[in-house]
């Protein structure tokens, strides 16, 4: 199927917007839209992934008054672009930290850790270089901060508020856009 390795999706979603009575007036629908954007964009749900952007608002339902509070809850149906990685997926990442235990990198909004055990065995950590890096003995392959690397997800855990990604390094592109092929070491026996 075409979407097997996709990680960006355009989904129909629902959210309840809670408004204080001071916002009731001529611009009520506009206020609901602005509050929806503020509450939803940039958040993460375990079911759908990271909400990148709300594209359209389909319907704003009738409000329900909260007894004893005066607040009104409006059910909103909308479409959004979401980011969700899957197990076994290969993606490009940007290295943001290198240390002796491994590499931390960013894949869009996802932060990911690559253990030193998942880095090819011929690469060693060099704490004396500036900046610290992983490199081969002949220095043909180097992984340092701000490099682009290609990673795969041996597994990807999710919870209601965030994803925790562990990855294995497959290949890298250095700042000079030089491609080097790295041998993949299995993360688990």
UniProtKB/TrEMBL annotation:
Keywords: DNA-directed RNA polymerase, Nucleus, Transcription. Its main location: nucleus. Residues 15-70 form the RNA polymerase Rpb7-like N-terminal domain. Residues 85-152 form the S1 motif domain. It comes from Heligmosomoides polygyrus (Parasitic roundworm). The keyword Transcription applies. GO terms for cellular component: P-body; RNA polymerase II, core complex. It is found in: Nucleus. This is DNA-directed RNA polymerase II subunit RPB7. InterPro entries: NA-bd_OB-fold, RNA_pol_Rpb7-like_N_sf, Rpb7-like, Rpb7-like_N, S1_domain. Belongs to the eukaryotic RPB7/RPC8 RNA polymerase subunit family. PANTHER family: DNA-DIRECTED RNA POLYMERASE II SUBUNIT RPB7, DNA-DIRECTED RNA POLYMERASE II, III. One of its GO terms (biological process) is transcription initiation at RNA polymerase II promoter. The keyword Cell membrane does not apply. GO terms for molecular function: single-stranded DNA binding; single-stranded RNA binding; translation initiation factor binding. It holds the Pfam family SHS2_Rpb7-N.
């Amino acid at each position: 199927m075409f979407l097997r390795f996709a990680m960006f999706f355009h989904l129909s979603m629902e959210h309840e917007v809670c408004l204080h009575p001071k916002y009731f007036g001529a611009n009520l629908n506009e206020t609901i839209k602005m509050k929806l954007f503020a509450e939803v964009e940039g958040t993460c749900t375990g079911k759908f992934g990271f909400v990148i952007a709300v594209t359209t608002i389909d319907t704003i339902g009738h409000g329900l008054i909260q007894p004893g509070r005066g607040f009104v809850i409006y059910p909103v149906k909308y479409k959004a672009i979401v980011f969700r990685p899957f197990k076994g997926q290969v993606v490009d990442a940007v290295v943001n930290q290198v240390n002796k235990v491994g590499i931390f990198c960013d894949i869009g909004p996802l932060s990911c850790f690559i253990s030193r055990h998942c880095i090819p065995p011929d690469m060693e950590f060099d704490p004396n270089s500036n900046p610290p890096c992983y490199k081969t003995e002949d220095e043909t392959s180097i992984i340092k901060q701000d490099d682009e690397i290609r990673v795969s997800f041996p597994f990807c855990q999710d919870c209601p508020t965030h994803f925790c990604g562990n990855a294995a390094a497959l290949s890298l592109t250095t700042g000079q856009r030089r491609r080097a092929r790295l041998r993949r070491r299995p993360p688990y026996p």
